[in-house]
Design brief:
By secondary structure, this protein is mainly α. It is built from 4 helices and 2 strands. It has one domain: Phosphoglycerate mutase-like (Rossmann fold, 3-Layer(aba) Sandwich). Helix 2 packs parallel to helix 3.
Length: 116
């Protein structure tokens, strides 16, 4: 049986600046780097000496998180664009409000329904 541990990238500037992430490439913040180290230490305690593979998105913030974990576990991290999060196209890096004001729901909102 295989175990899969999924770790999202830690804090990046777009979180603090209220910007759309997606393929907007950014480094980790100082706090993000510290969070990645704490996650790496915790995973090291959970995993021990077991055989493992580490995969990461090729975006810097994800790669930096994975590299920190990989160093702690003494394993290489393999980067791939296949693990990138959703692309927001031209909205990447723009204020979240910019994207929110242009959002159109895929299903009409009919409001709340009364139970039958």
């Amino acid at each position: 049986m295989k175990e899969i541990f999924v770790v999202t990238h830690t804090e990046a500037p777009h979180h603090l600046e209220g910007k759309v992430g997606g393929w907007y490439d950014s480094d980790l913040t100082v706090r993000g780097a510290e969070e990645a180290k704490a996650i790496a230490e915790h995973l090291g305690a959970l995993i021990g000496e077991r055989e493992l593979e580490i995969y990461s998105s090729d975006l810097r913030r994800a790669s930096q998180t994975a590299t920190t974990i990989a160093k702690q576990l003494g394993q290489p991290a393999q980067e791939t664009s296949a693990l990138r999060e959703i692309s927001y196209g031209v909205a990447g890096g723009k204020p979240q409000e910019w994207l929110d004001s242009r959002y159109t729901p895929g299903v009409p909102d009919f409001g709340e329904f009364e139970p039958i």
